[in-house]
Design brief:
Number of helices: 15
Main location: cytoplasm
CATH class of the largest domain: Alpha Beta
Oligomer: single chain
Bound molecules: iron/sulfur cluster
Function: Probably acts as a heme chaperone, transferring heme to an unknown acceptor. Binds one molecule of heme per monomer, possibly covalently. Binds 1 [4Fe-4S] cluster. The cluster is coordinated with 3 cysteines and an exchangeable S-adenosyl-L-methionine.
GO molecular function: 4 iron, 4 sulfur cluster binding; coproporphyrinogen oxidase activity; metal ion binding
CATH architecture of the largest domain: 2-Layer Sandwich
Distance between the termini: 29 Å
Domain Radical SAM core: 16-249
Number of strands: 17
Protein name: Heme chaperone HemW
CATH topology of the largest domain: Transcription Regulator spoIIAA
Structural class: alpha/beta
Number of domains: 2
Strand order of the largest sheet: 9-10-8-7-6-5-4-1-11
Amino acid sequence: MTVVLAPIDRSCPADPPWIRPRAAYIHIPFCAHKCGYCDFASLAGADHLANRYLDALAAELELALDGPRPVASLFIGGGTPTRLNADQLSRLLATIARWFPLLDDGEWTVEANPGTLDPDKVDALASGGVNRISLGAQSFQPSSLRALERNHDPDDVSRAVALIAPRFDRWSLDLIFGAPGSTLDQWRDDLDRALALGPSHLSCYGLVFEKGTSLWKRRLDGLVRPVDEEVEHAMYAETIDRLSAAGLLQYEISNFARPGHESRHNLVYWANDAYYGFGLGAARYVAGVRSVNTRDLPAYLRRIESGQDATGPVERLDPEARARETAVLMLRRTAIGIDREDFRLRTGFDLDALCGPSLRRSCSRGWLEDDGRRVRLTRSGLFLADTVMSDLL
Ligand code: SF4
């Protein structure tokens, strides 16, 4: 199995990728409509602020950086970046390319939603340097799309893929299982229909009722209820089995890819490497300090336009807490797990001295496997990953 590890720059040990970022995230918050489960920094009905937002983003980059920072990975997420029109997308990409020139063989991903792409936008993305698209399909069942309060229909997904696939070798579909009212058969159909479109990468997440979302309120009011735990368990098992049978290998708890098509950007997060983040609500992790921008759009615009940064909470973890966090993130990588030598190099801690008792507990329960070099989740551990990880913390 080919698995891409976040690159370790051993030529410059004083400036490794867990200290100096080689990745950048840019957030575009605009959406056509707020989905029922969405807890992201996104908003509908604010498109009239898009040009002002792009100006602010450029000003934020100018304020924060004293020169271009070459990176191996760029990710424009949202929100719905493809809610911008083609001219706005071109302008955004030019701004980003100026500050974050992409290294050779670098990955540049843009998130897109069905129903928001057209040939001009796809052309703007491809000619602007983007080489990977992540499409939020979520489901092919009209009833699940309604339950999730998505505002597209299943055919919009295939129409979007018809635009993307001829221009991008690397593209991914996002799916959600466990929508209220959904069945195991419907989820099997979702997986089959996703595979039939030929993605090289699939992200499959179980639905989470995030506090404050419309879906969470509907659940509190008794208007919807989650699918039964056994059904959700069976849906996840089906995901692992069907996708691996189709040649998409599981490289993270919720992510599957053809060899060589793993998301390099997400591997940066799961190695606990450093990354830049700009835009509304964007998080960054630089030199061991994690900070996040305000999620309030008027406040973001006001602060940037008056020459201030938009940073909200800042967290500086002590070395031991950082090392434990690194162990948890690395464990998400189901194929690689935690490599003891890599862990020591990155954190300065010996894995067994730090986490020995909890690792042994999970190994003895059959949730982790340990070959002396690496520790990884077993298949049964995948279903109990939260328990294994909270024990490590
Ligand atoms: S399209 Fe994505 S970001 Fe926008 S509201 Fe829906 S889930 Fe949230």
